[in-house]
Amino acid sequence: MRALDMKVIRDLWHLRGQVFAIALVIASGVAVLVMSLSTREALTNTAEAYYERYGFADVFAGLKRAPESIKHRIEDIPGVQTVQTRVVRYATLDIEGFAEPVMGQFVSVPEGRAAALNRLAIRTGRTIAPNRADEIILNEPFAEAHGLTLGDEVVAILNGNRRKLQVVGIALSPEFIYSLGPGALLPDDLRFGVMWMGREALAAAFDQQGAFNYVALRLSRGASADSVLPALDRILKPYGGIGAIARKDHLSHWFVMNEIDQLSKMSKILPTIFVLVSAFLTNMVMARLIATERTQIGLMKAFGYSNLEVGWHYIKFVIVIAAVGIALGLVSGAWFGKLATELYAGLFRFPLLLYKASPSAFVIASAVTFTAALAGTLGSVRRAATLAPAQAMIPPSPPVYRKSILARTRFGRWLDQPTRIIIRHIIRDPIRALTTVGGIASAVGLLVLALQWGDGLNWLAQRYFFDAQRQHVMIGLAEVQAANVVHDFEHLPGVLAVEPLRFVSADFEVGTITHRGALTGVVSDARLQPIFDETRNAVIEAPAEGLVLGTRLASKLGVEIGDRVWVNMLEGRRPQLQLPVVDLMQTHIGMPAYVHLDSLNRMLRERPSVQYINLLVDARAEAALYRELKALPAISAVMLRQAALDSFYDTLAEHLLVYVTMFTVFACALGFGVAYNATRIALSERGRELATLRVLGFRRSEISYILLGELGLLIALGLPLGCLAGYGLASVMATAFDTELFRVPLAIEPVTYGQSVLVILGATAISAALVRRRLDRLNLIEVLKTRE
Amino acid sequence: MSQANVTLEAQGLTRVYGTGGVQVHALRGVDLALYEGELVVLLGPSGSGKSTLLNILGGLDQPTAGTVQFREHTLGRAGDAELTRYRREHVGFVFQFYNLIPSLTARENVALVTEIADNPMDPATALGLVGLGERLDSFPAQLSGGEQQRVAIARAIAKQPDMLLCDEPTGALDSETGILVLEAIEQVNRELGTTTAVITHNTVIGSMADRVMHIANGLIANIEHNSQRRAPSELAW
Fold first, then answer.
1. Residue-range domain boundaries for chain B
2. Nearest to A638 by CA among A497, A485, A500, A473
3. For the domain B36-61+90-234, what is the CATH superfamily, name and number?
4. I want to staple B61 with a disulfide (CB 3.0 to 4.6 A). Which of A610, B52, B55, B168 is the partner?
5. Which chain B residues are closer than 8 Å to A429 by Cβ?
6. What ipTM score was computed for the predicted complex, to two decimals?
7. For position A100, what pLDDT does the model report?
8. In which element (H, E) is residue A197 found?
9. Segment A494-501 mean pLDDT
């Protein structure tokens, strides 16, 4: 081995604490990058392969009932390659041993053969045999949640008839990678399940023989959904079509893509912070190393080493530091990526989820980090390379300090000398001080960002599950019914109050902007599910006429109070009306548009009708109520608020735990790395100064004050800045993750700032303690003799 | 000169460095006494053990065996905290390479020490004593080597120590500047009566002392009494 390479190894070993601290920061950035890139790649590839192999459709449309004979008209739409007609209905289930009613979404499949589109991935068992009306295939997560296996029986109330169905298969479908029950925010596999029945049997159960109420299309290569959708809507309009959607708006697909999108954003925003900080840190350490080796550099040059060789020698340090960090980051990133992918596998159900630590993610992460580390240290290395040998051999003249303006003030005169040393040192090298402050601030900011997710979700749960939804149970009727159906529910056990609701699919149109959504019809003085405005933190009374729009919808349409919106309803007589916007309301969930229920029915020219009924229930009578609900024929859905709330917290708690742990580790690594390097460098530069003070009779605590006081002051500056940075990062994320389905609220609790500050203080305290130990071992005798 | 009051007394000082195979005996049983107000020069070639002796007398190092008695302090067995207190209350140090704090001005470097002392003089007075009354607000980078060393002397004496220990104070200076520094030391010793020990390998400097201790091979080879102290200005090397 060449002597110079030996020097690299020995010097790095000597600096191992600092090298490790920087490597930790680099590793954190690389880990986030690798984790998000490889998880994204795993999700993307798996989804694509899954869609391709199982024929996930391009266009979807629900309708009321159309004869099978119009199928060929749909096939004739230019760009349509394959048409799949189906019967899809909701029904309640009675699962033995499970007290609460369960909702089932029944989807028809061809008997005895594979479907043309949206084919099932059979996990165990088989497809539906021909002429078997009692066979059923269960969606795997639902079967798992209830421990149902082949041969088990499930009781369903299909169109009022109590039917025993036998499980013959367990499957997954590209349509239900993410399966949400109606009105749910997150999957609840105990209370909502997708199941497949033979087309004939399901059609017979719901009076859809020779007809269909759902159609899916595969488009030919190159065809655009934009041109197919209007044509399909025109054909389905007379049959109660509620508006076709393209794949991008398909709920399950949307959630998968949204997650992929979030991972992409995460892979851009977060690693940038780590990479920048690690570049600054590497620069700090290299600048110091080069300063201490000034004489050696002069010597190397005197011996005839070229500028290039000297520069390369120091670049090797950077390469090794970066390589250690990258190696640590690749390993932990691959591990975190696997963890995250497994987490997604619980939420998104794929027949197989192949996670392989992505080579491209490794390459990108390594390249970005190397480049940043090298770019960050280029200045120091160039200074080393171009140092004139004669000049390098002379010890540097003492650093020049000046009195700050502060020193001339009354406050300045009151300062003691150790404090002056601290302040002048900071002022002399503001870039380095800023690096430390910025690094600490980033660490706190990252932690605030991670911890505030919990705050946001609590806030969201409070608004959504308590302020906006005050009912205990929401019942979906199989069909729209006359308003007096409400009275049937008043007499059910434990029911304290009843309130109807109606949703009608509608297109909203202003100029060239359209939005496909729904109108929600609410009653006067609604108490169970009122219009709740988060900004005013109050209930808004439904106006007799006109619309109350969610602010997100209003901004999409570009309207304000007083403007008019064309509303094209997609159900009943499909009226098209221009309605005034009379009020706006803020919500983080969906893009609602409210009207008065009476006005909605009038516009549809129907007698007073309802489709959803909210119940307020006495908890003591819940069990009796559930028993009755399981037997009621006319209902297709039962939604329990407490269950929804529980699943909201169960699902998110697991995800949050993983992410908060991950971020806490990374933020601590950042805080520790920055504080440790700043202090070690300061110690290296001022060890002689501090030892001199010890000789002059200063106590250990007094010199610790000078060294750690500087760190303390910088941390004290960094902490509040970190809280600000955390708020900024959280709002950047909130903006980046703003979607039509939900928005992440920015609702940071004070305790979150407190916790973040304490955790980072802890991490920096550890590094301070490590350096403090070195301070105790200062060699007092050395300084008497040697010159730095 | 009066030899009545002993400031510091050492007996049987040995100092062995290293463990196991290689052992270096830096001191091999040194006995000495420093008397109040005297100026002693410890003379010896490098490696003779003079620095080790000074370190032990100054409370920077512990002898392997032997005792050092300074008034109520027994240094031989003192812990770190007690040695720190000893240095802080009784000893002033002047280093070969000045060891000023670069971020503090001359006045502030002196104030650094007076702030932790019980009965200090005003920093400006101390700097005036070494002839730097006009350079109070200069930073070390703005001062010459001799000036820096005189600031260091002012810093050492400002707390009115009982003992001033100077380790090769002229080692980094040319002779002309070195003499200025020695004048400052001599003046402090004379005017304030501070017991002063100067380490040097420069034999010429011995003639400004009351006593010269020749150190060789870890022992005091002999002690020379000067009947007449020569003024530093008369020295040349």
1. 36-61+90-234
2. A473
3. P-loop containing nucleotide triphosphate hydrolases (3.40.50.300)
4. B55
5. none
6. 0.84
7. 87
8. strand A192-198
9. 94
